[in-house]
Amino acid sequence: MIIVGAGPGGLAAGMYAARAKLNSIVLEKGIPGGQINNTGLIEDYPGFTSIDARELSLKMEEHAKHFGTVIKTVETTGVRKAGELFEVMTAEGPMMTKTVILATGGSPIYLGCPGEMEFQKKGVSYCAICDGPLPLFRNKPMVVVGGGDSAVEEGMFLTKYASKVYLVHRRDELKASKILQDRLAEDKKIELNLNSVVDEVGGDGVVEWVKIRNLKTNEVRQVEAGAFFVFIGFKPNSGIVKDPILKDDKGHIVTNQNMMTSIPGVFAIGDLRQQLTRQITNAVGDGTTAAVAAEKFIHGQLQAWEANALQGQKVS
Q: Within 10 A of 137 (CB to CB), how many other CB atoms are there?
């Protein structure tokens, strides 16, 4: 078994594969932990009231290695079917395997304004559920950028913790569904800023203010803000699969309840697959399921996923 990606899901899958005494390896181009290494404090992982993200990553890595999980630092460039096996292409050459678990995750689309990169982990965030409740941000104004369902939903969620939420969208109308727009209009804690963009995020060590520019008048105003959230899109890293595979319209790989994709023997977990939320707990649960299912697939105890069972989906 080859597991591509050593985020929380990949490490969980690696741990279960090692406990099952499978000949397995986890491939990771960066450092174990994945996207959670880009966050600061974590307060929504069971068992830890509050824990630094890097510390949690290290604990997960150590736990997996305790059971014999092998983690190799190498970039994976592709996965494709090769007869009865799969070829996993890496920067050091190809590797052959009976089954693959894809844990390559995804990345938020960055806004690109000055200060966004500088204040990563210091008030700039791409996950309201993860960071909105943090004590550092509570009872302070917050700024949300985006105009789709995610931006509106996350903006309304943040009103539980923020003193005020500025929702900034560059167009003259939101892209979110009508029902969400109606709910937004009723929320007195949200100030809608249409035809507007964020010019800069700044502060002394942490986010303290955001500059919002009106595209029609070119007027720039600086608002107080303790946190800055960007919801303008998310890109799943699904291009690694070189064979046709079922995806949704946003590029997420479609799986069944066992995490198997439309290619029998290839499993997808975490942010890579289509699901409701993108949380550490989701990824760990997916990794557990995928490793157990992959073991059963190897031993011929799991029926292959039928691609035509997904009505209306296209293989891409």
A: 23
SS3 1: coil
d(C-alpha 15, C-alpha 254), whole Å: 24
**Which pair of structure tokens corresponds to residue 48?**
């830890």
> CA-CA distance, 14 to 16, in Å (whole number)?
6
Q: Is 130 a catalytic residue?
A: yes
Q: How many Å apart are CA 271 and CA 215, to the nearest integer?
A: 34
Name the packing angle between helices 53-66 and 8-19 (round to 10°): 20
d(CA 83, CA 138): 55
How high is the pLDDT of residue 316? 54
The confidence band for 30, taking pLDDT boundaries of 50, 70 and 90, is: confident
What is the maximum span of the chain, computed from C-alpha positions, in angstroms?
66
| Listed residue (50, 136, 215) closest to 124, CA to CA | 136
Single out the catalytic residue among 113, 131, 271, 286.
Answer: 131
Q: What is the pTM of this model?
A: 0.75
Catalytic residue at 113?
no
CA 76 to chain centre: 19
Catalytic residue among 44, 52, 113, 127: 127
Virtual torsion, Cα 32, 34, 40, 44, nearest 10 deg? -100
